[in-house]
Structures are given as C-alpha cells and as structure tokens.
Amino acid sequence: MYETKRHERPVGEAPMTPEAPEAEAYERYVGGSPEVEREIFEKLARDLMQVQLKVMKRSGAAGIDRTFHAKAILGVENARLRIRPDLPEDLRVGFAKPGAEYPVIVRLSNASGVRQSDFAPDLRGAALRIQVGPDQAHDLLMTSYPVSHARNAREFVAFAQAMAGADSTLRKGIALFAKLPMAVGWSTAARMRRNVTEGTRRKVGSLALETYWSRGAILWGDAGPVRYRLRPAAGASAAPPPSQSDPDYLGHELSARLARSDVVFELCVQRYVDARYTPIENGAADWKEEDAPVVPVGTLTIPRQDLDTAEARAIALRVDQLAFDPWNTTDELRPLGNLNRARKAAYEASSAHRRGYRFITPRPKRNVVVGGLLQTGFSALNRVVPWHRLPTRLGLLNLEAFRQVLRSRNLIDTEIREAPPKAHPVPPPIDEHLRVRRSYDGTYNDLSAPMMGALGSAFGRNLPPVYRPDLFDTPNPLVVSRELLHRETFIPARSLNIIAAAWIQFQVHDWVNHKRYPTGTKSVEVPLPPGMAWRNTPGGKPEKVMRFAENEGMYPDGGAEPPILFANTASHWWDGSEVYGGDETAAKSLREPDGGAALHLENGHLLPGPNGIPLTGFRENWWLGLSVMHTLFAREHNAVCEALRSEYPRMDEDSVYHTARLVVSALIAKIHTVEWTPAILATELIDIALTANWEGPPRNWLTQLGLWLVDAHALTGIPETLPDHHAAPYSLTEDFVTVYRMHPLIPDDFEIADHRFGRTLDTLGFNDVQGTATEALIRKVGLTNSLYSLGIAYPGAITLHNYPRALQAFERDGEVIDLSVVDIVRTRRRGVPRYNDFCAGLHKPRIRRFDDLTSDPETVARLKDVYRTVDDIDTMVGLYAENPPEGFGFSDTAFRIFILMASRRLQSDRFLTVDFRPEVYTPLGLDWIERNGMKSVILRHCPELAGFLPRTASAFAPWRPTTPDRHVPGTGRE
C-alpha cells in the first residue's frame, strides 16, 4: 500500500498536471502548467496585498504590516542549531551534516495579521533562518497546528480576504460564517472553520513550550519530501497560567524564562510515504505519526540572555524587519506543493509591500461600476462622434474611460519568469544609495523587481505579436518607400519648429534602442525590385539586395525563430540616459576629472570624441539638433550642480551629481509632458489632459466629480500618487517604438542664421549638419545661433510622401541604408501587427476600403498599386496616411498608444511618484522642476534669445525671426 507515488486529486479540486519527470511523483500544477499556475498565483499575491491595505485601514496602523504573523513575541540572532551526530544516512542532506552547528535567527510570533492581545484566540508561529555560510541560508516557517486551514492557495487567500481586519468577535463571526462560505463554498468553509477553531481554542502559557509544524512539505534531497516540526526539548520548565489581562504576557514570559535558562527545541522531520497518507498538494491533510514517524534531526538552542536591554531591543527590531521566505534555500531543500509554490509569489509581494518596495492602489468600486458604464456608452457614441469632436469636458471623460480600457487590455507581460519557481539565496540588502538615486543602468527603480525596465530588459507589447516570415518582403519594402514615403516636395508642419524634431529624437534615444549585430556579421537582406541596384557600403559595388545589420533577439525558449523578444540597450525609464550614459562606466567618464559632479565641457561645448562625435550619453545618428539638445542639457546639469553646492555646501560631489541627475531627468519628463506633447497635439483637450498628468486636473467641480466617479486616482497629478504598473511589469513596447517613427520631421536643408541681424550665415543640406560635420558647425556659429536657426524653421509634417531624402541614402556604421526601408522591415520582423490589425487591437474599427484611410485620391491610388488588400498595409504607412484629428501632428491610432504609455512612463517610476519628494530631490531640486520649463532652460544658457521666443506658446512653436538689418557689420554695407 506504500509503493505508489501516483497523485490522487481530491474531489472538486482543479485538475493539475505534473512538473518535470523527476518531480512528477510529488507535484501537480494548478491550471495545467507552471506558466498558468504562476499567473494565478501572481493574482493571488495581489489579492494578499489588498488584504494588507484593508488590515491597515481597519486597525488604524501607521503602515503596511505582515499579512500574517504581524506581532512578534521574540526576535533573536544568537540561536544555534546543532545537527545530531547519529542522523540517519538518508537524511544527511544539505546543511544536515552530522555534528554540524550553525547560527540561527529566530522569530516567534502570533499568527494573526492584526497586532492583538496575546490572550486573544490565535495560532503561533516560528520562523528560523539557518545561516550555513555567507552565501547560503535556509528559512523554515512553521505554525502551532499540524495542518493548514486551507487545502490550497485559493482557499488560503479567500480566508485571508474574509478575515482581513476582523479585530472583534462580531467581525470574526461575520467573516467565518458569511464571507468565507460565499468565497469557497459551505463544506469547505466548515472544514476551514473547524481547523481554525481547533488550532486557536487552546490557551498558550509559553511559546517555548509550543510545537510548530511546517504544514507544507519540502524536498530533502534524495530522501524525498519531508515535513518538519519544531518541538520543545524534554525537561523544559512549566509556564505560569496564561494571563487574561496582560496583552503582552507571552513576551514577558519568554523574557523571564530566557533570563533564567536556555530555551531548547528539537528540529524533526517526517518522511513522505505516499500520496494517500502523506499528500504533498493538500495542505489541510495531517501526516499522522503512525504513518510517518517523527525523526529528530537536530537541537535548536536559544541561549540564556537579557531581552530587556537596548541592544536586545535593537536586535528584535532588526529581526522583525526581515522577510522570511521558505524559498530562501537551495534546490535540494526546496519547498514542494501548491501552497508553498503560492507562498513564493505571496511572500515576495507582501514583504515588498510591507517594506515600501511594491505598491498597490485598489480601484474604488464606484470607479469600476461607473467606468464600465461609461466605457460602454462611449464605445457606442464614438461610432457616431469620435472623442476629439466632443465638447472638451466630455472629450476628457471619454479619454479617461478609454485609457482604462487600454490599461486592462493592452499591457502584455513579456518578462521572462521562472516557472516553476526555484529556490534562491536570501536577497542581499538594498544599497542605501539606490533608495535615493537613480542607478546608472535603470536597475532598482522598482525595489521589489530590481531588473524591471533596466538596460537589457525586453521590450513589452501593447498588442499580441504577429509573425509572418512569409510576408517579411511583401510588398517589397523598396516599392513601399519609393511610392508612398519618398519626399517629392517638402511638406512643412507650420505649428512647430525644428527644435520639436530635435527634442523627440533626443527623447527616443533615452527610451529605446534595439541592439544590432556588428556590421557585416549578421544582416537582413531585402531583395530589390527588377532593374534596381544598391551600394551597401560607401564606395561599394552595386548589389541586387539591400543589406543592413540585423537586430539581436532574445530566445527565452532556447531558439525560436524568429525571436520572440528583443532587448532594449537603453533603460526603459525616463532617466536622462541620453545625457548621462546607460551604465556606470559611461556615466563616470562624462563627469569632470577627479569625481566632480559637473559634466565635463570644453568652453560650454561637449568634448570631442575619437571619431568626431562628441562624448555624451548616446552618440548615434548625430546631427545639429541632437548636438543642441545635448549641449543645452549638459549645461543645465552643471547649473543645477552649482545651485546645489551653493544651497547645500556640505553635500559631497557624488550626491550633488546624482541629485542634479534626478532634477534634470524630471525636468525633461515635465517638458515633454506639458510642453512638447501639447505642441504636437495642439488642442485644448490635450493641453488640459497632459497638464493634469503632471499637475492634476482643473479644479472645477464638474471635472472633479467626473474623475471621482471614473478614476479617483487621477484627481491629483501623477507625481502625488504611488507607483502603479497596472496590468504588466513596466517596459516600453515594440508598438510604442513603431508610433514614434517620426523621421518626416527632419528637413533636408537648413538655413543657419544670425539672431542679432537676421542674416543667413549658410544654407546647408542634412549631410552638412550631421555626423562628424556637426561639432565644427555648432562651435563656429555657437549654441545661441544654432537654437535660433532651429527655432525659426519648420520641421516636416508626419505624413506620407515626406520622408527625408538624406535618410534614404544614409551612411551609418560603415553601411549605407535607406532608413525608410529599415523602418518598414524592422516593424515587420519584430511582429508588430500590420495597420488594420493594429487598429483593431486598439479598439478602432477596421478599415474596409483604401478610401477609409485617407481622403487624398492620389494617395488612395498609390496604396491600391502597392498593396493587394487593406489588410496588407504596413503599420507605419497607415499611421502616416491617416487624416489626423484637427490640430494633431500625428494620427489618432498612434495617439491611442500614446495615451496609454504617456501616463505609464510617469506612473510606474518611483522617482516620479512616491520618491518625488524633497527628501530625495532636495527642496531646491523640487523648486527647480516646478519653476522651470523649456523656455527658462534656453534663456538660462542663451539669454540673448528672450525676444524671439513665443509669448503665448511653448518653445516648440515657431519663433519670431529677426527683421534683417540693412546695416550689418562686416558686410560692406555699413
């Protein structure tokens, strides 16, 4: 009867499937696979975080506490575990070496998530951290009842939700007899009540005399699964009767006991027998001693000591701050079973929540209900009247409701996760500097997930990828480019200036950069139409294919083709990496020698690099506009450093540097949010919406009421909220990259003018202001004249037939490319859906005819010539072809990605939310961000331009040109 290890599923339990072959004897997965189970457990972990908030609210606590075991009775660091010298051979696994002795941290506690009196009915808990070495520790967690009230993770969370904040007999009764049956059913609720009642009814005199059970099983190397327990050693002195008046009597009793003598426990295990008598997946089943005898493993000794000293209290506080986790162990001693696998997600989430590393912002029920009604109503209304034609306040409400739809449906998690979970070492403490400084590479922005959004992490998705290798070259990208993108006549965007074009490239270089294989190693080959040839290298021979470097993909499943994911070689955060560099080496190389806080400049200009491109955080695709932006904000960084030194003379240079980086990065984010974006989407509605993202919504009662009903979290500016990643871990997305392909903004020629006299200094083509020619030009004419020249000139409109000619034969890294072709090919090969699928995925009606896309008859004719059907239209082509809303510089479809991601870039970043505060930025830093914008940055470094900047518009609107003076010095016309 003890031979079989086949798993038997209890009646009513969700079907499970085995893990890997080596473990299928013991474990089955909820939902059918480790990946599905992980998603279920992530949801349960978020539910437990909501329980923590509910407990805090009802108990009136000052902060988040543990979901369970909130009240510590004992916390010591000097206990010792000695393994028995006669340990059976098969149990000599991992730290269980005969005669070995280890230091142990011990925490004894009440089990409730509420800090209640010790005489209140409750279970008790023990947490041990066995410290085997500097890089290895094992956490053992136990409770004073042999079985769990919950059979599995779902029941465990349902019980926690029902009991959250139940701090009185009445509330506990309501929770157990009303809420719990509604969540798990009457029979299951009865079993759970019975287990809880039996476990908590007994009066406890001393935690030194309690026995503690693991409930769940762990793997004990080749010996297989075991459950462990901690029981008091023989000969312990009796405890006085439990107090009914002292709310802390258990702590007082332990203190008195340890003042007299050691407290000693035996650590024991029970071996697995079979699925019937010693089940792994059922936490509510007892492993009876007659079936699985108890085998002593070692002796735990808490030495005699005085707990009533300042040192002991400091130690107890330190222990209370620890996050014990059964997965803090090694693979050969890893936890087993449904409850333990759920505990990995739950413990990580709840401990991170408690310590302020992770946050959750529950959506009020009224927002769910009213928001759902509005989404339905606006969905119907927008079939007749699009959102941008509604009255302003109604349009704002429409956008807010739609943003909720996008947040719930268009954030796809692409992070590579471990499934099934794996054991891990105890996480090291977080460097204190990382709590108040941006890291060099984007790590530790989210303290609970240090790699989220960091350099090298994968791009996310707003839409499921569509990989069609058979259509990578259909229709031919060269034909698409020549027929639909090629600039025949420059089409200006008259509401903007070229500074706006430079700005967005400046920003994109901070946000996104796909890694490419080195030129000549692994290339994409695009076949050319008949009769066409291309020189792929400067001076190279004509070829029948266009060739350019392939992107490096990520292959999480070991080699899928084409790659599922692509890594970002910039961090995803809004951290100014284009100015400061993307890693520590680059960042430190840009600073003044000897560790100075300022960026190293030469007479106010960037230092020249060995290849003619200046030294700065991002040096690719260099041209005059980028040089202006980088020079301007390097100077701004140094100005902030100077102000910080003056205001805080005791601040060291490293702190000055990092604080200035925080300030400049946030100022850049503010400028983009409240200045650049309303300039390119020039409507009152967008201006209000984007300003509300940063500063909060208008204070009129109608707007406030609407947001209170639909999205209460939008009642303040995002910097006053908590971080919120919504439906997926934060990242920028491949779809976001696609809608920011705004190369038509770049003109093909530039007039360089003198701001003082209005005379033209030179007229240059794009190739004369890019690459190695750039720095000689900006140093010759100066930053002031360069800004003036860009400020008075129009960029190109983001539309078809307006792609810069110079970028269609562009030399980069030793190859000659048509960047318009590269844009099309990259989008296809990265799996971004084609235009019609893109629209549908963003909840827009599909177009059925080419005429539905644009009102221009010539464009319609060309579209029909190039594409077989509307479903074949490339995403970028469709976005350029759309007739945008009035005042918009790009399409409504692109805007849908924008309204989702624009707030997300702020909302996810703790340095733009919970840590946007004077303790981190300094009062001067926050005041600098508050008082400044693009105009003041320009005027700080180029005050001569004050009279040319627009009076009632942003610095990205066209500037007033100087009236040419006929008496210009040096022209012979004096």
UniProtKB/TrEMBL annotation:
<keyword id="KW-0276">Fatty acid metabolism</keyword>
<keyword id="KW-0223">Dioxygenase</keyword>
<dbReference type="InterPro" id="IPR020835">
    <property type="entry name" value="Catalase_sf"/>
</dbReference>
<dbReference type="InterPro" id="IPR037120">
    <property type="entry name" value="Haem_peroxidase_sf_animal"/>
</dbReference>
<keyword id="KW-0560">Oxidoreductase</keyword>
<keyword id="KW-0443">Lipid metabolism</keyword>
<keyword id="KW-0925">Oxylipin biosynthesis</keyword>
<protein>
    <submittedName>
        <fullName>Peroxidase family protein</fullName>
    </submittedName>
</protein>
<feature type="compositionally biased region" description="Basic and acidic residues">
    <location>
        <begin position="1"/>
        <end position="11"/>
    </location>
</feature>
<dbReference type="InterPro" id="IPR034815">
    <property type="entry name" value="A_dioxygenase"/>
</dbReference>
<keyword id="KW-0444">Lipid biosynthesis</keyword>
<keyword id="KW-0611">Plant defense</keyword>
<dbReference type="InterPro" id="IPR019791">
    <property type="entry name" value="Haem_peroxidase_animal"/>
</dbReference>
<feature type="region of interest" description="Disordered">
    <location>
        <begin position="1"/>
        <end position="23"/>
    </location>
</feature>
<keyword id="KW-0349">Heme</keyword>
<keyword id="KW-0575">Peroxidase</keyword>
<dbReference type="Pfam" id="PF03098">
    <property type="entry name" value="An_peroxidase"/>
</dbReference>
<keyword id="KW-0479">Metal-binding</keyword>
<keyword id="KW-0275">Fatty acid biosynthesis</keyword>
<dbReference type="InterPro" id="IPR010255">
    <property type="entry name" value="Haem_peroxidase_sf"/>
</dbReference>
<dbReference type="InterPro" id="IPR050783">
    <property type="entry name" value="Oxylipin_biosynth_metab"/>
</dbReference>
<keyword id="KW-0408">Iron</keyword>
<dbReference type="GO" id="GO:0004601">
    <property type="term" value="F:peroxidase activity"/>
</dbReference>
